Amino acid sequence: VWGPGRVERGSGFSLRPIGALGWLLSLPELPRLVCLVLTGEEEPAEGRSWACSWVGRGVGSPRERWAGKAARAGGVNPNCAPPPQGLSCHLWDGDVLCLPGSVVSAPGPVLVPARLQTELVLRCRQETDCDLCVRVAVHLAVRGPWEEREEEEEQFGAAASPELEDSRNAALQARVVLSFQAYRTTRCVLLEVQVPAALARPGPSAGSVVFDCFEAALGAEVRLWSYTQPRYQKELNVTQLLPDCKGLEVQDSIQSCWALPWLSVSAEGDLVHLVLDVPEEQRFGLALYRSQAHGAPRPWWHRNLTGPQTITLNHTDLLPCLCIQVWPLEPDSVRTSTCPFREDPRALRNLWRAARPRLLPPHSWRLDAPCSLPAEATLCWQAPGGGPCRPLAPPLPRDNVTVNKAHEFPLLRGHPNLCIQVSSWEKLQLQECLWADTLGPLRDDMLLVETRGPRHNRTLCALEHSGCTPLPSRASTRAARVGEHLLQDLESGQCLQLWDDDRGAFWACPMDKYVHRRWALVWLGCLLVAAALLLLLLLLLRKDPVKAAAGGRAALLLYSADDAGFERLVGALASALCALPLRVAVELWSRRELSAQGPLAWFHAQRRRTLQEGGVVVLLFSPGAVALCREWLQDGVTAPAARGPHDAFAASLSCVLPDFQQGRAPGRYVGACFEGLLPPDAVPALFRTVPVFSLPSQLPDFLGALQGPCARGSGRLAERAQQVSRTLQPALDSCFQNPGAPGRGARWALEPGTGLE
């Protein structure tokens, strides 16, 4: 050690280790310049490590510092000045503004920070009066277009100009900014660094500079940045959490650690006791908070207390990140923090109970949890009916999860059967089907996994409880039995694509229709049994058979619209038949459909529906209808033209006549005419192959034919015939009163025995 004068060994100074933090140097008086030379017994002088520090007269107030390594060519300067071939630096007085600025292009080779290295040291006024300090080493490197300088040297050669020679021998200089941030503290210092041209060569390191040091509080989180002015690259940064009094091995050297309240944790059943052992009158603060791996801690509980205290917590309040901080209520006091429940099994169980996956539209999710936790997540396919959720990895890999942060799904769209599994240390902790709330319950879909290999190779398999069944396959599994149909559904676009990339794809194919086919016979048997039971119940209840038969039978009325009076008569008959009840279709009530479809199309649809339902087609003959029939029968090739846009009778003859000519009419058709308007003998002989009833004399038989073979009981039919007759009477009177109407003014002559006299 050299100072104002040489200090011999043992003359008043001591150098002793301080835990793992460094060395404590005690001097009888503080010199202006202090250098330490560290060397082994056999190490040559040029390999010795040395460090120099200029300090001011004020205790512990550094002004300028320099650190380096002795040059290989020379030894250690006996005056401890920086060697002429070494790295040198100068510290600016006072702090500077922390303004990094934008990145600019380097004009040539420049000196930039390459790496930051920190070290915790003690800064002591006395042996028992020390503060914690962060020493920062900035490792520098040469960056930039070094090739341009070499090309100039090759171009000019040995005969280079003096300016080029001066540029080549010039030292590189840089202004390096060190930024220090801690709680309530922000500092930026500026170091002017210079490296000789002989050492300014591209490489991983051109030397290092040490700043000694930034004062910091115990237990604080500090952040360091380093960059140059101007800035040629992205700034370097380091974050470090400093230990508190419990984490240091030198509490006796820091006075603020002497008066800390000491904390112990004990458990009793479901309760946890925090016991603070402090003097009777000492006032201190106590805070419970949740530490976070990313971001600021979350305060939970805070109190100012006096004397010994016991704080009781329930075991459900415990979490691995629940920490306790205590400090004496004094100015600038040191806070001590401890997190005693990091490995507590109850705290880990509480954490997983509080963790919840949440779906974030459109294709992301987040794991909400009060603490950070080590977890992995993967997608799985959950089939309905229970059973394990089949992981979709491969091809989808497991991802590390950061809590309270959004994660993207590698999917094209969601599906109710897609679930997410969260595991920790290979143990499943959570499973949630995130799309069930928005897309409904689980579906009976089969997931097809497409795997793509080299040379466009493609394989398909169906994911089942027993594994992934190749398609097609002769196995006895559910997917194998319908494998061909599933492949057809995939090719026809009936399957929903959930994921697609170079490795493969996922397809969800519905299985409902195959389940319906499988159980069709069972359902048919059940329906037959139910129908038999219903029929038996109807027989037991002895319901009116005529009502049961007529209530559901269909009747299609066809007529020729001779005049308005005849149309009113047909409408009255249709209304009376509906009251039986019968399901009556008539052109008069379907004019809108008739106009939209056309008479022929409307008749075809009504005839097909009526006959399929076991109904009957009623031909109401009038003089106009008979004339149309004769015209058709005489021509035999083309149908007679319709008399109006709504004349369905003329259009229907093209289908009605073939039924009569080929013998298909009995059981499907019945005829009717109104007495006084047309006698039954006037109906063409071809149409008399089916019953033709004269109304109203044969109303009971007419109603029986409409209601089908189940109709019986002449008394009930006669009663219903009288109801129909009363409904028809006003329309008949109006029809007969029209000028030129046949039988005008006549009344119906009812034959004896009809019950209508």
UniProtKB/TrEMBL annotation:
GO terms for molecular function: interleukin-17 receptor activity. It is a single-pass type I membrane protein. GO terms for cellular component: plasma membrane. The chain crosses the membrane at residues 519-541. Residues 552-704 form the SEFIR domain. Keywords: Cell membrane, Disulfide bond, Glycoprotein, Inflammatory response, Membrane, Receptor, Signal, Transmembrane, Transmembrane helix. GO terms for biological process: inflammatory response. The keyword Transmembrane applies. It is found in: Cell membrane. Homodimer; disulfide-linked. Heterodimer with IL17RA. Heterodimerization with IL17RA is independent of the cytoplasmic tail. Associates with non-glycosylated IL17RA constitutively. Binding of IL17A and IL17F induces association with glycosylated IL17RA. Forms complexes with 2:1 binding stoichiometry: two receptor chains for one interleukin molecule. IL17A homodimer preferentially drives the formation of IL17RA-IL17RC heterodimeric receptor complex, whereas IL17F homodimer forms predominantly complexes with IL17RC homodimer. PANTHER family: INTERLEUKIN-17 RECEPTOR, INTERLEUKIN-17 RECEPTOR C. This is Interleukin-17 receptor C. It comes from Oryctolagus cuniculus (Rabbit). The lineage of its organism: Eukaryota, Metazoa, Chordata, Craniata, Vertebrata.
